[in-house]
Structures are given as C-alpha cells and as structure tokens.
C-alpha cells in the first residue's frame, strides 16, 4: 500500500514539473505583434520548435515571451546556424533577423 502511495505521489510531482517545462510564446509576421500570428507551446531547454508550414516561417517580425524566459530564433529548421541572439521577455516588436525558421527557448 505504501509503495502505491509513493508511486502516485512521484507521478504527480513529475507531471507537475513537466507542465511547467514549456511556455507559450506569440510569434507574428508583422511588427508590434500584428499580422498573422501563432502561439506555440515550446518545451524549455531541449525542444527545437520548427516553424515550417506556419505563416511566420521565414518571416518572424515580432515576438512576445513570458517573464523569466528568453528565446533564440534560427535561420535553419534545426535550431542551428545563423540567427538572433537571445531575445529576453517581454519580447521585441521588430526582430532584426526575420528569416527565422525555428526557435528554442530557455529559462533565465
């Protein structure tokens, strides 16, 4: 009986931690969060989110990022190669490197 209680408790802790390990950001193809936008949920630290087949692929102009996080946008679809530096929360209204095709986010 104790073993089951411990397993259930650990499962709840792991589920809670997993839910906090992703954030939702807003990415738009217009300046100042205008135009076509998407709001993907992105895993922190390890997930490379590909923008393929979205209206912002290759045309990222503005982003909104939650407090306590930063994101980096990449020219490739695999989060490597040329791209932006870290964009800190709350985001930016005029991305200096709009040709981005993927994004990766981190906790500060």
Automatic annotation (TrEMBL):
Superkingdom of this protein's organism: Eukaryota
Keywords: Signal
Signal peptide range in chain numbering: 1-19
Biased composition (Polar residues): 98-108
Segments for region (Disordered): 89-108
Protein name as catalogued: Uncharacterized protein
Native source species: Penicillium fimorum
């Amino acid at each position: 009986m104790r073993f089951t209680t411990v397993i259930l408790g650990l499962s709840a802790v792991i589920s809670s931690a997993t839910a906090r390990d992703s954030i939702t950001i807003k990415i738009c193809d217009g300046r100042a969060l205008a135009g076509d936008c998407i709001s993907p949920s992105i895993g922190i630290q390890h997930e490379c989110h590909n923008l393929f087949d979205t209206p912002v692929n290759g045309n990222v102009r503005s982003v909104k990022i939650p407090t306590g996080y930063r994101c980096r946008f990449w020219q490739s679809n695999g989060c490597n190669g040329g791209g932006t530096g870290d964009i800190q929360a709350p985001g930016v209204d005029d991305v200096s490197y709009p040709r981005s095709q993927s994004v990766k986010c981190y906790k500060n």
